[in-house]
């Protein structure tokens, strides 16, 4: 590392990813620059030798460090560990089972410096087995500074708060100075939801760049999205945090409608996938979903579910009961 602070810090949480980490590290090697640093946070893997693999593989990656947790803390906590250790003017994230296209990080830095915004968001490539599909960030205005609030609504359309992936972008350190960018410690899933809502409510500027250099691997067996245990239910805490933090927002009434719709979409998704859960977890999912839906007024539910689709509306109606007249 040079005596100067790095321009970019890349934060890479790793947990049980020994089989994928060689490709991840190799992609970092192909993005390395003297003013970039790479921070691997090993979250006490339990099923493989991720830590040992990192120590060996990062020998060929300049300006890299491996930080090991004393105990497993989950993705949000691992990212926070990386944030606390980062020295760069800009920060970005990469999951330990994903990878980057050559030169992608340089392009990220070029765009955020050119536009001088608080953060830049990007498209990404979803990888499922041998199949690859480009996923565009849901904002049509590209390569110009924007007010982040203008990308939260409308309620019934996919917007940037529905695209919460922390690794699809780059973030100026000044966000940390304003009390943003950190994640809620201990969240094991849906950790990006309160985080992206805070950025779009509180940051002053952002932009979307048409970059497609992040390759996001779906269907990884060790991923929490594939595991049907109680950790999946952290999404309840995530959305309760979103709603709680909205309470003091000057546009709380308008934005709450969007947050409730987000909440209902995720609840419906989990209920429709409940067969993958352990029986006790599925029962807890139904109980907590019923409580959340029961706290919403009939008007709030009608607005949240309008146009959501018959299957999702039906499953939510059955859980809450009495939701007559909600249009699918």
TrEMBL record:
Pfam families: Glycos_transf_2. Residues 9-150 form the Glycosyltransferase 2-like domain. InterPro entries: Glyco_trans_2-like, Nucleotide-diphossugar_trans. It comes from the Bacteria. PANTHER family: GLYCOSYLTRANSFERASE, UDP-GLCNAC:BETAGAL BETA-1,3-N-ACETYLGLUCOSAMINYLTRANSFERASE-LIKE PROTEIN 1. This is Glycosyltransferase. It comes from Streptomyces lavenduligriseus.
